[in-house]
Structures are given as C-alpha cells and as structure tokens.
Amino acid sequence: MNPGKKPNEHPYDVIIMGGGPAGLSAAIYASRAGMRTLVLDKNPDAGALSYAERIENYPGFPDSVSGPYLLSLFDKQARTLGAEIVQQQVMGVNFKTPLKEVMTPDNTYSARTVIIATGSMGRNPTIPGEKKFLGKGVSYCATCDAPFFRDRHVALYGEFKNIVHELEHIRNFAEKVYLITPEKELGSRQNKVVDGVRKVSLLTDSNIKKIIGDEVVKGIIIDDGKGNEISIDVSGVFIFIHGRMPVVDYLFHAVETNKDGCVKVNKADMSTSSKGVYAAGDVTCSQTRQVILAVAEGCMAALSAQRFTQ
Ligand SMILES: Cc1cc2nc3c(=O)[nH]c(=O)nc-3n(C[C@H](O)[C@H](O)[C@H](O)COP(=O)(O)OP(=O)(O)OC[C@H]3O[C@@H](n4cnc5c(N)ncnc54)[C@H](O)[C@@H]3O)c2cc1C
Fold this sequence. Notes:
7-stranded mixed sheet, 15 strands, about 20% helix, binds flavin-adenine dinucleotide
C-alpha cells in the first residue's frame, strides 16, 4: 500500500472488489444504470470460476461452457457497458467516511458505495510454520510485499498459472526466485515461460513441508516428489495454494463477519453492517456456491448500491 497517495479526485459511484461472476454481474448492472463503476480484480486466474473446467448448469449454454470462457464473456459485457476493470489487488479499505476508500499497492480509490465480491478461495494456514511466520516472511500477496525482499532469495508456491503471474512482481526485487509447484508436468508453453530465465529455478512435483526460521523466515523444507526432503534458504515464502475460506483479510474487520469469516449480509438487499457497503457471491457463504447465485447476488448488490446513491 502506498499511504502517501491521495484518493482519486473524482470518486466512483461504486467500487466492486473482485471480478468473478458476482463482481462482474454487479458491474454489468451498475454500469448499465449509469453508475461510474470500477472493478478491482487481483487476478482472473485466481477466482473459483477459473478452476471450473466445464459448467453444464449455467443457463444459456446447452453444450456446456468452460469457466474461464464464461468469465471472459462476463468481463466483456461489463466493459462494453462502461465498467472500468483494473487488475489490482485490494489491500485495505476505509468505510468510516461517507466517501469510502479502497487501497491497492498502486492507488487509493474512493466511491460512494462498495461491493465486496472477493469469493471464497482463501486459505487457512496448513503448512507447519505458515501461521507463525505470516507477515514475517510468509505472504499471500506478491504485489504487496515483493519490495520487502529486495536482493533476497524467495519461494513462490502454488499452481503454476498463479505463481507465474506473481513472478513478474517479485522478479524485479528478489535476487533468486524458486518456483515450487505440486504439478507433476508442465506443458511446453508453460515451461518456456521460465526456461532459462535469469534468477528463476522451477521445481515441479514438489511441496513445501515446513517453513523454518527464528523471528523471521530463514528457509523451507520441500518434498521433491521422489521421497527426498530438501532444505532451501529463503527469506520469503509467497503461498498461492487455494482453500475454501472467504477472502476477507484485506477488510480488517471493516464489516461484520461470522465465525467462519463469511461476510454477514441482509439477504433482502445484500447490505453489510457498514452503510453503503454490500457483498455478493461466495464471500457471503451462501449454502450453495454456484455461478447463478453469485450472479444473482451481484445484481441485487448493484441495484441496492444504485438506490443508496440516489
Ligand atoms: C473447481 C470448481 C468447479 C465449479 N463448478 C461449478 C459448476 O459446475 N457450476 C456452478 O454454478 N458453479 C461451479 N463452481 C462454483 C463457482 O465457480 C463459484 O460459486 C463462483 O465462481 C463464485 O463467484 P464469486 O464471484 O463469488 O467468486 P470468485 O469466482 O472466486 O471470484 C472472486 C474474484 O475476486 C478476486 N479477488 C480475491 N481477492 C481479491 C483482492 N484482495 N482484491 C481484488 N480482487 C480479489 C479473485 O481474483 C477473483 O477473480 C465451481 C467452483 C470450483 C472451484
């Protein structure tokens, strides 16, 4: 986050955090209603829909549709209707002032209303040492924390499509980057992305077993998939293995959540405990997590935001 940056001079009517089905459906309704609409999305490859190879139950696609393709259609429709979609990770919010603020590493944006739609692909720490060293070398956000690892050795751990996306943020700072992925084999196109790239070592079929250190991270133990445990000295470990937890870390309790971290909403209008702030999709932990429900909740949240601004 760059605290020196001032909020945009021209506030948006609505900022939507998350560009999955819930966020993009909200963007379609909001922009079509003439609202000045901004969508901030961390990475289109990181949401639940991007993992769905085949969707057979979303109406309008009798021959099924791939999740990423369906997402690209939502994205296109939102842009066509005038929504601004920016690939940036939200790192903090301020809902205390009438003009709400949303912080990313590059900017602070302001808006009259906000919609939370960051899904539920968040993680519960499971690797020994992960929780202990969170914020002390362990991070879930390369754009946020990469500069802390200037001239250091770091590990990026997760699915290749996600870690390679984060690589561009970290490469400018770290001296050496280990890309560690459980995937056994990568396609030739994927391999090409990192082949011979200076400072980068790729370790496939590998998993981090333990993160070690004292006050801060000093290294990791990995399982190399052949039964060997290998110790690697690193100062930073960026983890991009997904779980099933609502993604709310960047909210810092700005809205009420239940004991599982799900954003509490009034299902009649998708309003949260903070006035002018709405939530939609998997982040609200509906009993059934489906695209059609996320899309419906996004629509309701946008219509409520529109009413709020009138
Ligand atoms: C493997 C799999 C198969 C599935 N199959 C089906 C199916 O067949 N049919 C069906 O209806 N549903 C299916 N689902 C469920 C469906 O994909 C989800 O219910 C739906 O995608 C939820 O939408 P969402 O917008 O709430 O969240 P997501 O789709 O998870 O989108 C959240 C977005 O928020 C972004 N984000 C997260 N944190 C931040 C941040 N800090 N700043 C900015 N952006 C952020 C993410 O990058 C992501 O783009 C499947 C899910 C999975 C995982």
